[in-house]
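Most newcomers find our protein records easier to grasp once they have seen one. A record pairs a protein's sequence with a compact description of its fold. An example says more than a description, so a record of this kind follows:
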Amino acid sequence: MTDFFNGISKIKYEGPQSDNDFAFRHYNPDEVVMGKRMEEHLRFGAAYWHSFAWPGADPFGSETFERPWFGDTLDLAKLKADVAFEMFDILGVPYYCFHDADVRPEGADFAENTRNLEAIVDYFAEKQETTGTKLLWGTANLFSHRRFMSGAATNPDPDVFAFSAATIKTCMDATIKLGGENYVLWGGREGYETLLNTDMGRERQQAGRMLQMVVDYKYKMGYKGAILIEPKPQEPTKHQYDFDVATVYGFLKDFGLEGEVQVNIEQGHAILAGHSFEHELALARELGIFGSIDMNRNDYQSGWDTDQFPNNVPEMTLAYYEVLRAGGFKTGGTNFDSKLRRQSIDPEDLILAHVGGMDACAAGFKAAAAMLADGKLEAARDARYAGWETDAGKSLLDSDLNAITARVLNEGINPTPKSGRQERLENLVNRYT
């Protein structure tokens, strides 16, 4: 045991009336909703990078967090793991997620990076065995180091492509060894700053081939987990090739991977792309590529990815409504890709941020489940499209322009507008939240 969270006991459910900051008011892991325990529905995970690797810097200021594990040695990496698994236990989160660079010291070359990662993976395996915490997903950090300043798979230098491919292999190996239920690819710099020095066609081909290699390796290793892509429109690059769910689906179709790869959708990235979170979730569901979510929020007065802990219950209600409509999580879950504010420097802040996020998610999830079970929103939607369920409506899509025109003339079709009843439905949603 470390003393970083000294004096903080395991967080328990105490109900909505509790005035204990260190208690859950809405998240009761054993509460049964729609036939399953809430823990099994939400599948909470903690992000290793924001919680334990981010030092609190921003573009205008240096680090504000002083953590005893900061530094590039294996001993410090193991101390970081000790503290991380203590936090997982305090919160009762069943899962965690990591990039390779979050957990291992940076080596002088690929071989040393690999040795460092393998040492930490062995340590994680021991931690998982003793605590019961599991790996939701692993991934490779192919964006922070200066070698990736022009991308990884999309880099104009084939040596960087090779280094990236080898790094992905080691991270997939780590994920498989730890029983990770998914492997995520987030192309942090797979995009461009200017078209003046960019061959977009070549870069897309490189990215597509890299993804095909990942899928091939999955089958070679007999890995049963899901391969996920996390869409993001911009920042740090001006334009990224995985802009949003629709763009990713087009990319997957282009390279014959639409049946092999799903999406890990982040709330903050959806907003940056000009969408709502529920839009991206609904589209992924309709396209059959919904996999997992990163839960956070953006500051709507800022034009960048602030990664704040979630606290907007109505937003989360609509998000989890789409998750439930997709049949719920299978291998995916709710990962808190969220970070403290630079001024929140105390260990207690890290615990309380997760407590608040988990409670807000639970409240939103229960509202979504009640809304789906009640069926009024679905009934209103079905009524709006009822005409398409008639024989005449069904026949339209199998017809042609000449036949449809003849029908309009013969039947004297002259439609009048019908209300979309948006305000009524917004009021309905507010009854649950």
